[in-house]
Amino acid sequence: MQKTQEKKNMKEMEFFTEYGDANRYRILEVIGKGSYGVVCAAIDTQTGEKVAIKKINDVFEHVSDALRILREVKLLRLLRHPDIVEIKSIMLPPSKREFKDIYVVFELMESDLHQVIKANDDLTREHHQFFLYQMLRALKYMHTANVYHRDLKPKNILANANCKLKVCDFGLARVSFNDTPTTVFWTDYVATRWYRAPELCGSFCSKYTPAIDIWSIGCIFAEVLTGKPLFPGKSVVHQLDLITDLLGTPKSETIAGVRNEKARKYLNEMRKKNLVPFSQKFPNADPLALRLLQRLLAFDPKDRPTAAEALADPYFKCLAKVEREPSCQPISKMEFEFERRRLTKDDIRELIYREILEYHPQLLKDYMNSEGSSFLYPSAIGHLRKQFAYLEENSGKSGPVIPPDRKHASLPRSAVHSSAVNSNAQPSLNASDSRRVSIEPSRNGVVPSTSAYSTKPLGPPPRVPSGNSRIIIYECN
Fold first, then answer.
1. Nearest residue to 143 (alpha-carbon basis) of 323, 329, 340
2. Domain 112-329+431-472 bears CATH identifier 1.10.510.10
3. For residue 447, which of 168, 223, 442, 473 is within the disulfide window of CB 3.0 to 4.6 Å?
4. Which residues are annotated as a binding site for ATP?
5. Which of the following is catalytic: 151, 169, 213, 313?
6. Start and end residues for every CATH 3.30.200.20 domain found in the chain
């Protein structure tokens, strides 16, 4: 047994390739662990930036998990926006046919909104407003691309101490196409119950809309205001009870439109409940914030505003600017044609491999020219695998764990590939990406500023929990 374990450790530690950008990332520490694998903080030695490298283990062990990873990396490549977490690169695997783990390089964020809410009971009205503004701006961009996130919750909103938020975890997201069969499109909906729209709790509709994400943002915003979940239901029925306790029983025409017979019967037989005034439920909140929140939490999805309409609400009068709230071109159906057929593990491996090459444009070009037959390319995975394995093995020990450095230099680029590779090259962005929002720290380094937001200073930033609070970042639940 011991020999088997030693053999396994040796296999994890060995270098199977030493080419390419193996020295580009210097691993610092483990910041997260989960069923998917491990996340490490690292330094990009070319730019000096801190990044998060997510090692996803055994990607192809289960087809459903591999598909989820494929959707997420594809969507994050297509959705480039300041309020959506960015994949900076995906490391090249040793070969197209043999790789089973992937290493995704994200921008590093300090915490998430769940931890920020827990650590701060003194968030100001300006914090509330700025947080909601960023979340809605991300939604506008997603929804104009016809993407529904479907799993929005505080843990999936990353946060920095300068008040910057970014939406992450697109594993459950879907692109809506007009001819998509709804029975196929929505059967795998498993998002967290507390942030789930009422029409999802009771299968009210035959086709869902972006309003499901608007509801989730309303629940998150209410949690920002009070410091605790708004509808912590213990079951679907309990969830609907909590929702109607606050919003009152739905209108008869809303109930009549419910497709599910059992849900319709349950709502019809429910005792009459009145709407609780939001000023009573949230006594310390800005009245304009509550007016918008009530719109976001409308029981009938048709009564909820779109993200663009919510951004135009008077609540954001001193903050919103249309030019800082870009839309996105609808995503091409061709990008997700794989959703229409039954895929094998080899099919998904090929599709993920192609997504990886999108972050290495010259190599993608060479691969396309060679039709993938005998294509060889440099990989940095061996170096990272050694550092990850060392950190995983030693992370429980006292004192800082420093990963081992390389023991010899990489071969020159010319020795492994004839074409020059631009390591800084990134996939091209949509035209709308040129309208990026500028959110920079102020002179004192703590206040996010925008040119339209000069009348009210935001005040001190929320406290970002330190240490193990970052464990859940980038985790796919």
1. 329
2. yes
3. 442
4. 55
5. 151
6. 2-108+341-414
Question: Which residues, in sequence order, are bridge partners of residue 362?
Answer: none
Q: pTM, whole model, 2 decimals?
A: 0.76
Buried b (16+ CB within 10 A) or exposed e, 63-94: eebbbbbbbbbbbbbbbbbbbbbbbbbbbbbb
| 27 contacts 40 by C-beta, under 8 angstroms | yes
Q: Considering the chain, what is the average pLDDT of its residues?
A: 78
Instruction: Give the number of other Cβ atoms within 10 Å of residue 40's Cβ.
Output: 24
Q: How far is 434 from 437, CA to CA, in rounded Å?
A: 9
Q: Where in the chain is the domain with CATH 1.10.510.10?
A: 112-329+431-472
Can 151 be counted among the known catalytic residues?
A: yes
User: For residue 116, which of 475, 476, 477, 472 has the smallest C-alpha distance?
Assistant: 472
Residue 457 identity: P
In what helix (H) or strand (E) does residue 21 lie, and over which residues does it extend? none
Distances (CA, A) of 193 to 177, 224, 236, 413, 441: 25, 18, 7, 51, 35
240 against 449, higher pLDDT: 240
Query: Among 143-152, 193-202, 230-239, 274-283, whose mean pLDDT is lowest?
Result: 193-202
Binding-site residue ranges = 55
Three state DSSP letters for 232-274:
CCCCHHHHHHHHHHHHCCCCHHHHHCCCCHHHHHHHHHCCCCC
Q: What is the pLDDT of residues 136-170, one digit of tens each?
A: 999 999 999 999 999 999 999 999 999 999 999 99
Q: If we measure between CA atoms, which residue out of 389, 450, 417, 428 comes closest to residue 40?
A: 389
d(CA 351, CA 361): 16
